Amino acid sequence: MHIKQVIAKKILALFGWEVTGDAPCTEKGLFVVAPHTHWQDFPLGLLVRQYLGLNVRFIAKKSLFSGVKGRVFRLLGGYPVDRSRSQGYVQSVAAIFDQHERFYIAIAPEGTRRKVERLKTGFYYIALEAQVPMYLTAFDYSKKKVHITGPVWPDPSNENQFDDISAHFSGVQGRVPAYSFTKINEKE
């Protein structure tokens, strides 16, 4: 473990946090991080990234990348995305993977910090288009655990895979419990 990883581990432990699960084992990957309910998820994600020793980039809405704040987000590894244009979004994010030999990116599948009833599908199609695995990363504030599951390769022949991914995050308590993702069973 490098010194930066040791420091990140100590800071996480100081606040009572633990990182569990699968260590990333691929050269590229998409960290699907949920629930995203509060701004404090961002510094937690930066600590986890440092603990893992990976240069995990992140996608965020374009409006966050203006002025001084924008420069800081870029320095921290951010990629601005215009979410008002859905056309070409998946392809443009997937193309970023082709530009790098080793590359990881994090995406919040809810697309907002507010309560949602279903996850957006863009992350799945990005992984499929880029032919990279997903690392399902749960930020569970009730247990103070960041749990990583993966690699999970997108499989379009598995018609239940997206539902399985949604179920994976269902009930994980975010910083704002009321905004945490709870999968709605459509058959009820």
TrEMBL record:
GO terms for biological process: phosphatidic acid biosynthetic process. One of its GO terms (molecular function) is 1-acylglycerol-3-phosphate O-acyltransferase activity. It comes from the Bacteria. Transmembrane segments: none annotated. The keyword Zinc-finger does not apply. It holds the Pfam family Acyltransferase. Keywords: Acyltransferase, Transferase. Residues 30-139 form the Phospholipid/glycerol acyltransferase domain. PANTHER family: 1-ACYL-SN-GLYCEROL-3-PHOSPHATE ACYLTRANSFERASE, PHOSPHOLIPID_GLYCEROL ACYLTRANSFERASE DOMAIN-CONTAINING PROTEIN. This is 1-acyl-sn-glycerol-3-phosphate acyltransferase.
